[in-house]
């Protein structure tokens, strides 16, 4: 009887001790507040291991095991990067290039691909850090928004020799790249080229590509070679819009000439001070833009547009500035130019022109616009008729400044720096009287810039 009582007491003590230790272990491992911790605790055999050392050992094992589980699952989790949303009016584009290779490690927000659209180049950045496993599209493919683009294995950068090898590989190529002698033109071309990640075996092709740049400049006698180059999407869109403009608008051009003596004298007096205070050059575009916004107040049809059977008149002027880029002509917009000073307009022109040359313009930078100014004079143009940037109503073309003999008001003849102006307008919207009046008003503001202060 005593034997049974003792056994029962010992069993009860063992059970209570087991429950107590299980509770302690549970509290210890629950620090992570993780589902893994709660699953792990149910498998701990506390009846045979009730000392504190074992508890600490199990806690250490769990923490290490949890880290390993996280690393393994992250390292082997591949995610497909989709073609990003570009804009409401853009649903597809042409895959221009991948900036990385399969097997390269990329950091979050690092550029991995470029997609060319009708208006802008869209940059695709890595949504997270990881290793590129597979390309799901090829360069020159047409890709749609939401389509598969790249498969990336999410995880940390490779460790050990592999990481050192990958990081040092581009440096090694650059350091050992042979520099051709007695070919300064090629050396300049290489130093200005944008570095890209390419395998070592591609170097001969890069050198050959640099040499090919100079081949068209040398011709063989009686040569009859031809070559075809596919139009990029921007050039195709420009062609479509220009033809659409000719087919839609009743285009007509009126001309005038302006004496640039006043502006040139003004630039001579203030250009150095403006560069010091505003860090911008005092050019023609700011003055012409301001003059157009003031003239549009008298002739609002210049700033309007036709929508169906209605005419839209605007009390603001968003001036589109034509900027030439290697891929074609783009027209970034200066918003509310009527509310900006001449120097503020110049600052906007500098900012937008730089973005255009760098290929960084966004769709918002080019959308809208109520009137366009195109300055062909920077390329030496003497005379020309610009094409309307539909759905706008008019475009002003500036040309080169040339010294020409001019008959002055007193009948004498003098040499003056003269510029031809050309205003192409939609005759459906503007009458000839309005177009001529607008251009003459711009001429008066430019010939005497002080009038702009009184307007």
UniProtKB/TrEMBL annotation:
GO biological process: one example: tricarboxylic acid cycle
Pfam families: 2-oxoacid_dh, Biotin_lipoyl
InterPro entries named in the record: 2-oxoA_DH_lipoyl-BS (IPR003016), 2-oxoacid_dehydrogenase (IPR050537), 2-oxoacid_DH_actylTfrase (IPR001078), Biotin_lipoyl (IPR000089), CAT-like_dom_sf (IPR023213), Single_hybrid_motif (IPR011053), SucB (IPR006255)
GO CC annotations on file: mitochondrial nucleoid; oxoglutarate dehydrogenase complex
Residue spans of biased composition, Basic and acidic residues class: 162-193
Keywords, alphabetical: Acyltransferase, Lipoyl, Transferase, Transit peptide, Tricarboxylic acid cycle
Superkingdom of the organism of origin: Eukaryota
GO-annotated molecular function: dihydrolipoyllysine-residue succinyltransferase activity
Listed EC numbers: 2.3.1.61
Pathway connected to this protein: Amino-acid degradation; L-lysine degradation via saccharopine pathway; glutaryl-CoA from L-lysine: step 6/6
Presence of the UniProt keyword Magnesium in the record: no
Domain Lipoyl-binding per the UniProt entry, residue ranges: 78-153
Cofactor(s) listed: (R)-lipoate
Region (Disordered): 152-209
Family: Belongs to the 2-oxoacid dehydrogenase family.
Name this polypeptide is given: dihydrolipoyllysine-residue succinyltransferase
Provenance organism: Tetrapisispora phaffii (strain ATCC 24235 / CBS 4417 / NBRC 1672 / NRRL Y-8282 / UCD 70-5)
Taxonomic lineage of the native organism: Eukaryota, Fungi, Dikarya, Ascomycota, Saccharomycotina
